[in-house]
User: Fold this.
Amino acid sequence: MSFIPHGKHLIAGVWQAGETSFASEPAQGPGHRFSVGTPALVGAACAAAEEAFWSYGQTERAARAEFLDAIADEIEARAEAITDIGCQETGLPEARLNGERARTSGQLRLFAAHLLKGDYLDRRHDAALPDRMPAPRPDLRMMQRPIGPVAVFGASNFPLAFSTAGGDTAAALAAGCPVVVKGHSAHPGTGEIVAEAVLAAIARTGMPQGVFSLIQGGARDVGQALVQHPLIRAVGFTGSLAGGRALFDLCAQREEPIPFFGELGSVNPMFLLPQAVAARGPDIGTGWAASLAMGAGQFCTNPGIAVVEAGPAGDAFVAAAAEALSGEAAQCMLTVGIAQAYKSGKARFEQRQTVKPVLVTDSEGRHARPNLYETDATTFLQDHTLREEVFGPLGLVVRVSGPDEMEHLARGFSGQLTCTIHMDSGDTALARHLMPILERKAGRVLVNGFPTGVEVCDAMVHGGPYPASTNFGATSVGTLSIRRFLRPVCYQNMPDALLPDDLAG
Ligand code: NAP
Assistant:
């Protein structure tokens, strides 16, 4: 079933056309015209979100759970059309879109179940001690409350799971916060059909219409106006370091600064310990290649750097990775801009004499093939640009002289979403040395695996110190991500009649 987008914004239940439009640039199929967003539309959506918050923020948990389940149902009811337009716009294969849709409806349902459990409220009660000396203690109760309207920026690399009704939106709506989405111009039609699903769920469950708006992009002033709007209380963002930092700075410069939950960039280093490399270096190399090339490397958890000792065992790891990567076909990238950025990132490596090409491929147009390079620890430590994320299937092997240099290198990394150790039992002592370092660097530390594929669950942390994220205390995946859109309120000597229902009694 084909979906033909009408190209309008959804502002509090009403589809609105703008005065100007932009053309989508799908990887395949026909382009369509979409209205360009404006600061005036941002103002209208934020005002409606604030109005909706007075009732939505007070809804019972069960009602919000029903709403989230209804969004999931409505997305699934449009499954075929979503996959169709999603594949056209992004160039991602059908199986990926189907999987991502299941993840998107799955995380909405996960939040619905999480709401019903109520643990996230973190309710605390210190009962009054009227006879305490020298001073009595009042009755104190605490609970997490929603913060108000939240801005969400759709991500180019997850047109469903991190976009219109993706993880940020699900977490904010679950918390009780209305959402204003700034759609990504790489997949505006996918955004529109998902917004249609949210609107249908609003109608089914009787939620206030201002609880959700989608403003299509097409102009930079939309995102800027959104993060600066005085009614917005927090921002969820996944994208580039440059774009995220610019928006983060705008949030900090506001008269009333707000938190900007940005997930920006990570090279996800892997540390290969000697016993593991000696025992199964080629297998690790083949596994790395598969993780690196998956989805044309367009994952924030793409493991771009492998640190391994110099010597024949390490050589066998590199040879196996190169062999597996050389067999990978060219894959379509998400946008022309991302394909160009991949080529410039690759050029950065080629310009350096101290970086050795292991596998160099040509990329044509919007397609990319894997590239692999190798360097030594001294070069890597001196040249900071080698630690910057190249979005795409590009790997860098850093050869170290031994455990001390590996540890030294680990200390030099900036914040990461993930760090990985490949080890056998004989590597345990070295791994124990690395752990305190890696724990300080990353939101998630893995052993004998690859970081692509982020489980959506209670224990997941998808975040980390800057620049992996702009708030190291938060995660953008999993149920803990709801905490970004809540704040603790303490109620002192409050009669039951005034307490929120969840605290009374
Ligand atoms: P992006 O350029 O950061 O854009 C993300 C969103 O932010 C878009 O809606 C964009 O609006 C908006 N934006 C960016 N800079 C802005 C500014 N200065 N003022 C106002 N709005 C701004 O990311 P992208 O388009 O998704 O991909 C570009 C690059 O980001 C990739 O090549 C890759 O390096 C990186 N990336 C990283 C991750 C990750 O997970 N770490 C994920 C995706 C992309 P417009 O559409 O209007 O520009």
Notes: The chain is about 40% helix and 20% strand. The pocket of NAP is lined by residues 153, 155-157, 182, 184-185, 217, 220, 223-224, 238-240, 243-244, 246-247, 263-265, 300, 338, 341, 391 (CB under 6 Å). The longest helix spans residues 94-117. The mean pLDDT is 97.
